[in-house]
Structures are given as C-alpha cells and as structure tokens.
Amino acid sequence: MPAAPVTPPPPDPPELPPGAERRPRWSARLGALGFAIGPGPLLLLAGLASLGGGTAGGESESADVSSTVIVVASLVQGLWFVGVALLLASLVARPRAWHFGLRATRLWPALGWAAVGMLCFYFVTAIYSLAVQPDAEQGTVEALGADEGTLGLFLAGATVIAVAPVVEEIFFRGFFYRALRSRFGIAGAATIDGVLFGLIHFGFDGADGLLLLPPLALLGAIFCLVYERTGSLLPVIGMHAFNNMIAYAAQAESGWIVAVTVGPLVLAGCALVPRMLSGAWARAPAPA
To answer: What is the model's pTM?
Structure first.
C-alpha cells in the first residue's frame, strides 16, 4: 500500500532580528499603581494644603516656605517619578532606556511632528483663552524663587526648563501612557494621560484654577500623540522644554535670559546626544 503523505511540521514562530528584543508589556493596572504612588501623593498634599490654607477670618494665608526647599522638593519629586517608573517596570522585565522611549529617531520627521503638535496646541489655546478668558495663573515660577536674585532665577529656570521635562516625560509618557495604551488604545490612553497630567499642574485655586485644566490636558495628550508618531520620547522632551521655556520667559522677570541659555541646551541634547552614543540608542526597535 502507498505510504500516507507526511504532514509537514508547523513553521517556527518568526524570530526577531539579531540583538533585538521584544518590548515589555506593562498593564494598565501597573500604570494606575504607578500614578497612585508617583504623582498621586503630590496631588493629595496640594489639595490638603489648599483646604487648610484658610484662616479663622476666612482669608487665605500662604505658608512661608523657602524657595530653596521647594526647588529641592521638586528635584526629589522628579527623582521619585523616575524611580517609581523603573521599579514597576522591573516587575515585568529588566528596564532599558528604549523601553521608556529614550531612543534615537529620524530628526526631520521628529521636528515636523513636534512643530505640528505645538502649533495645534498654541492655536487651540489662543481660541480657548479668547472664549473663556481665564484669570488664574500658575505660581510655580514665584514659588521656585525666580524673583529672588540671579541664583534663584537660574535655579528656578533650570528646574522648569531642564529637569521637569525629562522626569515628567519619563513617567507620564514613557511609562504611564504606555501602560494605559495596553488597555485603552491610543485615543483613550492619551486622553486619560493628558487629564491626569493637567491635574498635577493646574493647582487648586477653585473654579479659576479649573479653567487652566483643559489647555494643560490638551498639551499632555498632544505629547502622547507625538510620542506615538515618532516612537521616541526625545522629541516630546524637547516640546515640553520649549513650552516651559516660553512660559518662563513670559512669567519671570528677566526670565528670557535663562530661557535662551538653558532652553537651547536641552533642545540640542534631545537632538544630538543619542547620535553621539552607540549601542542601544541606535539599535533599539520602536515601541509597539
């Protein structure tokens, strides 16, 4: 009798290119935990401070806190953001820089998407400001001591323009957004990320403070979308630094001096540092 046809074995699963790795998948629950122990305490403390700021006569009384203490606290909070992201990411796989979007990308497309994102933000914000005319202002610049001499001006500027964009983007877009995206998709994750990003920035000034939330939420969502299009967090860090540079120059007296000094250095770093380094910066695959 003729022999039965031999069934070929199933094909092997596709292999990754040599040296490539799969990006770890962080769950939305892990992202929620990160927000709870990362910026969550900051949000709670700010709310409690606001609720407890009234005196017996009904007039608000701000605490006399040294600007140096606030600068140091801001640095510690930033390190806490990054530490939380690294700790929770390590529960899934050993953290690598490119897991958080810290990887090289094509320069001109990245510049193009960054420009489109910022133009959209400023256009929508201008229309919103004309329609709503919010009276609230953020007091971050004054709290950091920008009006307390030359040293205070530069320390506050470096914190706002250089430190904050890096640590906040690593947490909010590099970790938190990617975790939310695993469940809610691009649109849902960008919306949630943007709203929560806005919440920790607008302050607690009642209804006037809430008027600042929509533009800040929009900015956070745009950061997510540019990260999605470029596959790299570096253009988003540059956008964040550029926006803070403009805001600092407008809000702080003589702030433009720091803005034109620190801002270009941060932008140049986002564009040039990955190209000056070898290894994982160039070879890491785009996050999926």
So the answer is: 0.85
